[in-house]
Amino acid sequence: MSSYVSRFCLGTEGGVTVAIKDTIDIKGLPTRAGSKALEEAAPAADHAEVVQNLLDAGAEITGKTTLHELAFGVSGINDHAGTAVNAKFPDLIPGGSSSGSAAAVAEGSARIALGTDTGGSVRIPAACCGVYGLKPTFGRVSRKGVMPDATSLDCVGPFANSIEDLEWAMSAIDPTFTPERVESARIGYLPGQATPEIDAMVRAALEHEGTRVEEVTLPSFLAAFEAGVAIINAENWAALGSIQATGKVSPDVGDRIYAARLVTPEEVATSEEIRSRITAEIDALFTKVDVIALPTLSQAPPTLTRARTDPTAVAVTRNVRAFNLSGHPALAMPLGALNDAPVSLQLVGPKQRDALLCAVAGLLTL
Description:
This protein is of the alpha/beta class. The protein has a single domain, classed as Amidase signature (AS) domain (Amidase signature (AS) enzymes). Helices cover about 35% and strands about 20% of the residues. The chain contains 11 helices and 11 strands. It has helices at about 50-55, 100-105, 125-130, 165-175, 195-205, 220-245, 250-260, 265-285, 305-310, 320-325, 355-365; strands at about 5-10, 15-20, 60-65, 110-115, 130-135, 155-160, 185-190, 210-215, 290-295, 330-340, 340-350. The longest helix has 24 residues, at about 220-245. The radius of gyration is 19 Å and the shape is globular.
């Protein structure tokens, strides 16, 4: 299967099938993160906590999935470990970095998949592949046994083809998660964050018998994007600099890791100030609305061919990165196709209200 690095069976035969991104440890298997530099990695001594939780919930783990190398990229293109095929939109990028996990769910070879999201790496491939993807509240889901060891941004999150399956996955990896249902929701829409056609399609999807929609603003939204870039670069240099030094990392990723060393402590300090500001702005909105909505992607995903020749074409993190910086839960929800490309709605909720976020997404699918 195109989306798998490796295929095997672990856990309850006949259980819910789950694929695991290859930055998440599975006991007895090396965690290679899609990189030649980690080809000689030793087998993991233990399951990551989320993997053990899935097994305890009766899941059947069916494989480890490919990704954008070292989880540092958004196209999903990986010429070493393999580029996952976007089953619903095969000419387009699968998105990254959790490309194989989204593709496995889209093609039906796994009912659930786990990815990680540092700057959109669950929501972007979910949007590109036309599936659901959830970045939980930062710190809510265990990262024990997940690369990198230290992060202020990264979250483990699930992919699925339905809200019900997404909720099952969250209940499995986070025993504190209890699904909710709602009959109404106050939605704050952040306008002007996509092409006019996408913006209109996403805005229309919010109209429901139980919804009340109002337009909202986030003054620090653009600054939060830039701050998120600075922090992810600083943290990736700390986590991946020694791997980059092996000379075995592809130029696509290795050059960006090396450039990340130039982020200064002053830039990080300024970015942390912006983190506090955008967090306060988002929290303030939740005194007026239940969730915030905006397009997941500001434009259609590029073709694989264009992404290879024009790196600027992969401008898909604009609408997602701020919520890694702030730590709020965010969910990508497929809306269908527009001009043969996927359109995805992003919902953002209050911290620790991940179940409410899923419930509002469920309301919008009725």
